[in-house]
Design goal:
Layout: E1 5-9, H1 14-22, H2 27-35, H3 60-72, E2 76-81, H4 85-100, E3 104-108, H5 112-115, H6 121-131, E4 135-139, H7 146-154, E5 158-162, E6 176-178, H8 194-211, H9 227-236, H10 243-257, H11 263-271, H12 281-298, H13 302-309, H14 313-344, E7 356-359, H15 368-379, E8 383-388, E9 393-399, H16 406-416, E10 421-426, E11 430-436, H17 440-454, E12 462-466, H18 477-484, E13 497-509, E14 513-520, E15 523-529, E16 539-551, E17 554-566
Parallel strand pairs: 1-12, 2-3, 2-4, 4-5, 5-6, 7-8, 15-17
Antiparallel strand pairs: 8-9, 9-11, 10-11, 13-14, 13-16, 14-15, 16-17
């Protein structure tokens, strides 16, 4: 089976790129930025002063006053976190930040296999029993926890919800909710991660305490010391890197490169074999994030959070090594599950299906999300993978393609077939749900019906978007340094160029990768296409990223091939 892939060039508004260039931006970067919708060089500022102020977040002032009063009254607070990297960094950020302000605060991490996701009544009961708090603060969850908040209210525990997930039709009856995606919130960046929302709440709380004379600008807690955690959670949660998120990430990365980071973050760099002094968003998303996530996937997230809350480098290093082991185990489980998934999909015919739903009795709940991601990349279809839960329930994790809103699709299925989905939640690109095992086939049909109604053939083609040709003089390590000075990621795609080359030579490496020597205008370039082992014709149209490859102390430009086709 093959999915059609084609190379396209992003349209670039000439006037916008010209304005940016006249504003002193490198001509190629000006073109790249303009093609990503950037109109003003000020949107490239990575200074903290350029952050959107907290006051734009609905109810944030109420939250600040409430928390300041609670700290003054010596009330006990417990943070209830989600079990992924965003949840872990949000929990560590909240814990560290609130303690800096003098709060009595602790945290609890529900085991996802026993309690599921979010603030459920069972978790409230557990928290009340183990921590006896006056106040529960949710981080990276809570917007859908209607029953859990009712249970907390019944027990006389006040709840502060901080979350970024999309709300359902009703909101929980919490004391205060801070979420840029709640109705009537005018905050311009709807893409804050859970950890970003928490960081904003801390900024507002600090301002409130300053107003009360608890400290002044010189003696106030230094919240910018938390930015390494904010950057890690933001990149790992794959939220859109709009101008506001780019500032948070750039500032966190700047601190990492300068060696100013928490012991756990430093230990994760070390165990992943990455250099913090040249930290990049790629390291956070593909080296540190998965190691933290692995704990929540296979075990419980307390290990990941402890890694981020300890200040003892020895303890952090010991935990990072454990996390690394768990991540290796996660990779093994994932590889097995993927093989099984491909067997299930052996007869899958992409021309006749718009979606994929797949369930296996032997699968692991903690890893289905990654498997859904891999299948979605392979088949380029919205994909939901299911694993057995408790007592006849099965849990699904979905990953989507551009233009198909996963959470809205599940919402529609639940309205068309009442009673089919027990609970669901999430975003446009990722969502989770629970159904009865015996309803799997009816669910797959209902989900496919939404897919065939919503998706066009054109949306089911994989498109490699590029920034067009690159002038010869910019195939240089100096230009690569210019590119590396910017934060690229979700919604602000790293530059991919595209041009016609003569294929001078090619050979297959380790049976898996294609190593190429390409020529254009009399200049030759080394190139590699990872994970591809079929040879190219003599002339090829190649979509590629630039990479500075260091070998024996010499740094040369090499092209990382994203896709290639006959010219």
């Amino acid at each position: 089976m093959s999915i059609t892939t084609r190379i396209s060039t992003r349209p670039c508004p000439f006037r916008a790129s010209e304005m940016l260039r006249q504003g002193g931006i490198h001509p190629v970067l000006a073109r790249i930025y303009a093609a990503r919708g950037l109109l003003d060089a000020r949107e490239l500022s990575s200074e903290l002063a350029a952050l959107v102020p907290p006051s734009g977040l609905k109810h944030i002032d109420t939250a600040a006053v409430f928390l300041a009063d609670a700290i003054a009254a010596g009330k006990r607070m417990t943070i209830v976190a989600d079990y992924d990297c965003d949840g872990a960094t949000a929990c560590a950020t909240a814990l560290r930040g609130l303690r800096m302000m003098g709060a009595q605060v602790d945290y609890i991490v529900p085991n996802r296999f026993e309690y599921g996701y979010g603030l459920t009544p069972e978790i409230v009961e557990l928290t009340a029993r183990e921590k006896a708090p006056d106040i529960i603060i949710t981080v990276d969850n809570g917007i859908a926890s209607i029953d859990g908040v009712l249970e907390a209210n019944r027990r006389g525990i006040e709840v502060v919800v901080t979350d970024h997930h999309l709300p359902g039709d009703a909101l929980p009856a919490a004391r205060v909710i801070v979420n840029p995606n709640q109705p009537e919130c005018g905050f311009p960046s709807k893409h804050l991660a859970g950890v970003g929302v928490v960081f904003y709440v801390l900024l507002a709380l600090r301002a409130e305490m300053r107003k009360r004379g608890m400290f002044d600008a010189a003696t106030q807690p230094k919240l910018d010391s938390l930015l390494d955690l904010v950057a890690l959670g933001t990149v790992a949660d794959v939220v859109r890197l709009d101008s506001n998120n780019r500032i948070l990430v750039a500032q966190g990365i700047k601190r990492m490169r300068a060696g100013r980071m928490h012991a756990g973050v430093a230990a994760l760099f070390r165990v992943a074999g990455r250099e913090a002094r040249s930290a990049s968003p790629f390291d956070l998303g593909f080296a540190l994030g998965p190691r933290l996530n692995a704990a929540g996937r296979l075990d419980d997230m307390s290990l990941g959070i402890e890694c981020l809350v300890t200040d003892d480098p020895g303890r952090a290093w010991a935990i990072a090594q454990q996390l690394n082991e768990i991540n290796l185990k996660r990779r093994e489980i994932e590889a097995e599950m993927q093989d099984t998934a491909l067997l299930h999909l052996d007869s899958f015919e992409p021309t006749s299906a718009n979606t994929i739903s797949v369930f296996d009795q032997g699968w692991h709940q903690g890893v289905i999300g990654i498997v859904a991601s891999r299948l979605k990349e392979k088949f380029f279809r919205p994909t939901i993978t299911f694993a057995p839960g408790n007592e006849g329930w099965i849990k699904g994790s979905g990953r989507s393609i551009p233009g198909f809103h996963m959470r809205d699709a599940l919402d529609l299925v639940s309205k068309r077939v009442p009673g089919l989905i027990d609970k669901f939640g999430g975003h446009a690109m990722a969502a989770g749900l629970t159904i009865r095992a015996e309803h799997f086939d009816s669910f797959a049909q209902a989900f496919e019906a939404v897919g065939s109604a919503w998706l066009t053939q054109a949306q089911l083609e994989r498109i490699v978007e590029t920034d067009g040709p690159l002038e010869d003089e910019y195939y240089s390590t100096q230009f690569i340094e210019q590119i590396d000075g910017q934060v690229w990621g979700q919604g602000f795609a790293p530059p991919v160029f595209c041009d016609e080359f003569r294929v001078v030579s090619q050979r297959i490496l380790k049976e898996r990768h294609l190593k190429l020597l390409l020529e254009k205008n009399g200049r030759r370039y080394d190139a590699i296409w990872f994970g591809h082992n079929e040879s190219l014709p003599d002339r090829a149209r190649v979509a590629f990223r630039l990479d500075a490859n260091e070998y024996n102390g010499v740094t040369k430009v090499q092209l990382l091939v994203e896709h290639a086709e006959a010219a």
